[in-house]
Amino acid sequence: MQEYINPPLMELESLLARPTASYEALEPVVENVFEAVKSRGDSAVREFTTQFDQVTLSDFQVTKEALDKAGEEVSEDLKTAIQQAKSNIERFHKAQQTESVYVETMEGVSCWQEKRPIEKVGLYIPGGSAPLFSTLLMLAVPAKIAGCKEIVLCTPPNKKGEIPAVIRYTAALCGLTHLYIVGGVQAIAAMTLGTATIPQVYKIFGPGNQYVTVAKQWATRYSVSIDMPAGPSELLVVADGSADPDFVASDLLSQAEHGPDSQVIFVTTASEMIAKVTSSVQEQLIQLPRKAIAKKALANSKMIYFTNDDEAIRFINAYGPEHYIICMKNESLYVNSIQNAGSVFIGNYTPESAGDYASGTNHTLPTNGYSKQYSGVNLDSFLKAISFQKITKKGIQSLGNTIELMAEAEGLEAHKNAVSIRLKKLSNGS
Amino acid sequence: MQEYINPPLMELESLLARPTASYEALEPVVENVFEAVKSRGDSAVREFTTQFDQVTLSDFQVTKEALDKAGEEVSEDLKTAIQQAKSNIERFHKAQQTESVYVETMEGVSCWQEKRPIEKVGLYIPGGSAPLFSTLLMLAVPAKIAGCKEIVLCTPPNKKGEIPAVIRYTAALCGLTHLYIVGGVQAIAAMTLGTATIPQVYKIFGPGNQYVTVAKQWATRYSVSIDMPAGPSELLVVADGSADPDFVASDLLSQAEHGPDSQVIFVTTASEMIAKVTSSVQEQLIQLPRKAIAKKALANSKMIYFTNDDEAIRFINAYGPEHYIICMKNESLYVNSIQNAGSVFIGNYTPESAGDYASGTNHTLPTNGYSKQYSGVNLDSFLKAISFQKITKKGIQSLGNTIELMAEAEGLEAHKNAVSIRLKKLSNGS
User: What is the pTM of this model?
Assistant: First the structure.
């Protein structure tokens, strides 16, 4: 990890920079898959599955039997763990439900806001080295609480042409019934455009590789929305002498093992912590199965010492980390002053892994500095707010003139007339 | 308006279709402006202003004096109307403030969610035939309530090279101080990339012509987010014999005058209403200053009779109107069954103009069927939710094994280790 001791303001900008991957080169590939799925539907999906996943499938949909029997192939311990995590995630996301907001802004002018579920949503769960059933929990649980009617899940086949049992088990546990064995760009294209087998959805959620990332952005050209733009995962830990260097090192490594492009940043106001954490990182690293990956990520990572809290906080807010661990004696100062972060972990016994899996918070979070303007996935991600209003005769008589004056000043006479015609009939006593 | 009597299911699809404007042809123009602003900043903005607005400006920023004195040029009546509207909009958007959501998901595992303002936002107010001070209210009021620190406003110059007084007055009334006389693609590019004069923002709000629409989409390639994708404005009115045909006609016309591409749809379950509304539309149309525009919009508009409520409701939800007026005897059936709409207006005395200007609800709403997955602009549009968690020693001892099992099953050993190392130290009594 690169060390920076009290870096000058000028240098901060380079410390804040993410490796900006430009994916524009992938757009032609993505466009090609979308065009093929648009014109040839399922048969195009089948061809791309053969081409990219080296599996030829006759049917993409997971059968009811394969869903019902999935639990038999998952260990009891793991099932209990998944159930515990699901229960916590449910509790936290249910607490985010809001009541209708009702206001009488003036006598006779009632305005209210209500939320409704997005009826059709698509969840994408990547394949890769391991089945990410935790991501499935993070997306399916709030979708169910929100009341989304059609929840479509796409995930790539393994070498046997199947969806791993633990994914099927978790999906069934969450009450999902529409699982499709399709991955990559073709999955995003199918959920965007719809095929004979795979339903079209209104919003697509979930992580993926760079092709999936570009495909999700491409999908927004077709009246589909997405959860958020994606980038490599990140962690920033701020710690002083009250922190345990071994714990800090374990958290930094848990981020570093994600991928060679993972971002890991350690900020401290206690200069001796840099050597302590570095030494513990080295010790723990050699024992990790994914140490080759973690090493690459650490090569780009940074340890930064600031002489005071203000400078540290300013840096952290300018960076806007996806995951942010605070192990400081004066933790409330850091908690209260955070403006830009995806998810915040407080204290020595709150590792990022807790939120990644089981504490209840969501792990689908804004990366790449997007915490400045995006929320992580939460219950509202599956809802939209609709405003309502009802005005009485008395209400329009009070408010009418205001509307008429404003409409006239904007040169919109018909807008004015919609009020005038009502006021006239009312003054005629009808 | 085209009439449809109880259209068969097959025909519905064509009725739901919006005129799909493809703006891809404009992308090269937009890209060119972005590249120029990126490399040459203010001087590029100045050149494009001369080119597109036929005005050469030495300074883009509105002076404090021009803001302070704006009120002198606005009539007292209009100022009172704007203040009334602002007060109602404030009341409705303040009511949308939410408390922190706190849950102890398990003993010792505290999770909470808090909202923070997006620090830097850009508001775009188009120029065109009239100064849209109402849109400024709709964006500035919630931005202020949310607590956004930097609120940047861009709007094009009029022929005198100024921002109209009513815009300056409204901005000052809302407490805005950073107004820039810049419009079009160059305004969006400047707020996205930042120039020496115009600050970079994190999220851009506001309507605009097709160039601005494409520019906002283009901005999302540069770590900026936008309120929502834009399209032509729309209104759907559903009315039965209990409605006043003159009122219905006035509402349809208020939508039609927006632009030739406006979408106007009338749905009824009382067939005689079609003739009545048509005749009233003709009568009122000839008196409108913008009748040429309204006529063009009406040519593409539709009147549809359905024999029963179920069919009407299914059609309305499939269409997902931006504005939706309900004038039905059984209004609660229609109110309760709406799933997809931007803003709903209920009863004979609730014209769309009320929400466009002054009742309190926001008029920046999803068009083009986007109400299926997007909310209109509301207080949350200016906030992001951050999740927090704090776990005690006892908490990690209860939850730790669940995390370890799940991390292991996903093949992420370092994630597991971040828990194991803590559990080990705890069991050693430290």
Answer: 0.96
